[in-house]
Amino acid sequence: MKKVPIYIIVAVITFAIGYNVNARYFSNRRPVQPIAFSHKIHAGDNDIPCLYCHIYANKSRVAGVPSVQRCMGCHKVIKTDSPKIQKLTHYWESGEPIPWIKVHNLPDHVYFTHKRHVKAGVECQSCHGDVEEMDVIARVASLKMGWCLRCHMNEEVKNGKDCWTCHK
Amino acid sequence: MPGIIDRLSKRLKAYRTPGYYKKYDYHWTMVVDLDKCNGCAACVVACHAENNLPTVGKDECGKSRAFNWIRIERYVEGEYPDVKVKFIPIMCQHCDKARCELGCPVYATYHNQDGLNVQVYNRCVGTYTCATYCPYDVRRFNWFTYKWDEPLDQQLNPDVSVREMGVMEKCTFCIQRIRVAKDKAKDEEREIKDGDVQPACVQSCPTGAMVFGDLNDPNSSVSKLAKSRRTYRLLEKYNTEPSVIYLKRVMDGSSKGHEERHHV
């Protein structure tokens, strides 16, 4: 067997390390949010339904980032001594929205509606991953067209293959 | 691998064959009553506002780069005191047997299940073939990436994408409004009723000359108007079977309808 040149091995290892570091810390899949909000505590451990906070998911195109008021509805009394909650209280008192960083971002030429998907009985987890087990929210799906078409090529999706069903 | 390509090309060929659909889910049709049209061009303005069309200005129009999905053509007969003017609004005719679909090398324009001739902007590579094939001259090409000045960019419609340089575009029958109506109808678990969908031009028409609806539904207003004796379609001799139906303007003393003299 021929020997593999050392520089190829070094290149492969460097690429692998770089790729992982990039994916973990610098990609838009897993950004650092202004408040270290944990979906695991809320949706996982305490079983709060998704629709309690993302109230528009079954009524509108967007699922809706909850308002600070919705957070404060519980956190006026729950765990007020935690530094994270004090950060939230600061936003509440100054009357500012929390500058959450969008994780699931679709390009402008895509028409996507949460309502149709939720009403068709698609589970939130089938696109967003097991959010109830995530401490830091991360995007698991590629959100590329080929990924959408895995479901849309099925006959059950009416006009699922037509370009203008999803593009605008 | 060649087997896959063969199969795929066969399917695509079947797809672009005119009359691929036996029956459309909806057959969106527009009826334009030329007796009511007074050429005010409100439809042109409404179309610009709804579909994010740029206003290119006089110089560009002079270079045959005018930008409008719907235009008003004028036909003037006679001299000043005794003058007869006829107007005809012309938009994409959404032909059932569309020429443009045959020409596109990348399948960017195709017929969908609603009888609409649609253009996929992301697929378009800008060969201009469809515009040269179109007998109605309704396709418009983005020669530049047009910009909107500071306050005007706030009025862009978020339901319609802003096209870039090198992309062909045309009237869509306001497909974004059809989509909204479908969404609403699905929530209420029914089909789209007559009058649920109104493209911007139809909505803005002050005299109600334009009517939009589903030709598959025998009780819709377009189906009733399509039975009129005045109906004709543009350049019928080319057998493109347009989805836009015109109702002839009957004028006293006018020798011919302009429809017979309509050349593009």
What does this structure look like?
The complex is a heterodimer of chains A (168) and B (264). Chain A is 44% helix and 0% strand. Chain A is mainly alpha-helical and 168 residues long. Chain A has 3 domains: 1-29; 38-65 and 103-161, no CATH class; 66-99, no CATH class. In chain A, helix 4 (68-75) packs across helix 5. Chain A starts with 5 loop residues before the first helix and ends with a helix. The mean pLDDT of chain A is 90. Chain B has 264 residues and is α+β, with helices and mostly antiparallel strands. Chain B has a single domain, classed as Alpha-Beta Plaits. Chain B has a 4-stranded mixed β-sheet with strand order 8-1-10-9. In chain B, strands 2-3 form a two-stranded antiparallel sheet. Chain B has a two-stranded antiparallel ribbon with strand order 4-5. In chain B, strand 4 and strand 5 form a beta hairpin. Chain B is globular and about 70 Å long. The chains are: A mainly alpha (168), B alpha+beta (264).
List the helices and strands and how they pair.
The complex is a heterodimer of chains A (about 170) and B (about 260).
Chain A: H1 6-26, H2 39-45, H3 50-53, H4 68-75, H5 83-94, H6 114-119, H7 125-128, H8 145-152, H9 163-166
Helix pairs in contact in A: 4-5
Chain B: H1 2-16, E1 28-33, H2 42-50, H3 58-62, E2 71-77, E3 84-90, H4 99-103, E4 109-111, E5 117-119, H5 129-133, E6 140-141, E7 168-169, H6 175-187, H7 200-204, E8 210-214, H8 221-226, E9 231-232, E10 244-247
Parallel strand pairs in B: 1-10
Antiparallel strand pairs in B: 1-8, 2-3, 4-5, 6-7, 9-10
